[in-house]
């Protein structure tokens, strides 16, 4: 595996095998570190009835928001609605199934899935609607609810640099959910800004080892900003 070249030449090849009804894990936080070209390819493919797991769902007309336009998503597991008016509209109208999950709990559910841990207890959400229907146990005098792990058929991830073997480095806050998602997909696809030959990445700087990555592709990115704020 260490010498396996995981580069693919096209986005169609990168997402080969993605079909209707699958669960897709998407890295990113807002529009920071999102796999924007892989998202566009999902839109082009026209896959429907998808379950999407991501911190949020992009914005209107960009990022994961593109998949809402043609109603390609059946269910979203996310931590907040964010800046997406269509997401809000579909949620309130009942056209979109939404499972809102506390952000730290969402991260841990995905991390657990990638680590092969089926479930864990957390105090977050106890006594709220989040806890409805979930097992409750007490540890050291405090109540905890049982949360189950999350895995997916595909994980789509945005990195900064990668080598041909799929070892990935993320840049600054664009790391966010990406390393977690990369571990929890049956097929993990990473798009990066720069692909380098093996041996050119410092092993101590690698965030996602290539063992988790199935396909890697180099792309060009718009890197749009949700709320641009400037000062004199």
TrEMBL record:
This is Succinyl-CoA--3-ketoacid-CoA transferase. The keyword Transferase applies. GO terms for molecular function: CoA-transferase activity. Belongs to the 3-oxoacid CoA-transferase subunit A family. Keywords: Transferase. SMART domains: CoA_trans. The keyword Methyltransferase does not apply. It comes from the Bacteria.
């Amino acid at each position: 595996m260490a010498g396996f070249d995981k580069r693919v030449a096209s986005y169609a090849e990168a997402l080969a095998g993605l079909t209707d009804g699958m669960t897709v894990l998407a890295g990113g936080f807002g529009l920071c570190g999102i796999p924007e070209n892989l998202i566009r390819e999902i839109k082009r493919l026209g896959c429907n009835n998808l379950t999407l797991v991501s911190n949020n769902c992009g914005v209107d007309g960009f990022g994961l928001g593109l998949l809402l336009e043609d109603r390609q998503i059946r269910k979203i597991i996310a931590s907040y609605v964010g800046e997406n008016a269509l997401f809000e509209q579909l949620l309130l109208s009942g056209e979109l199934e939404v499972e809102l999950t506390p952000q730290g709990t969402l991260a841990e559910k995905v991390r657990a899935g990638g680590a092969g841990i089926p479930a864990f207890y957390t105090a977050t959400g106890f006594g709220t609607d989040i806890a409805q229907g979930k097992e409750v146990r007490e540890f050291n005098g405090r109540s905890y609810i049982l949360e189950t792990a999350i895995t997916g058929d595909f994980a789509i991830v945005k990195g900064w640099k990668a080598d041909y073997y799929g070892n990935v480095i993320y840049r600054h806050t664009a790391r966010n959910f990406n390393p977690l998602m990369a571990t929890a997909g049956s097929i993990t696809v990473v798009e990066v800004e720069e692909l380098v030959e093996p041996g050119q990445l410092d092993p101590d700087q690698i965030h996602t080892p290539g063992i988790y990555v199935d396909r890697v592709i180099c792309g060009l990115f718009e890197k749009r900003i949700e709320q641009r704020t400037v000062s004199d």
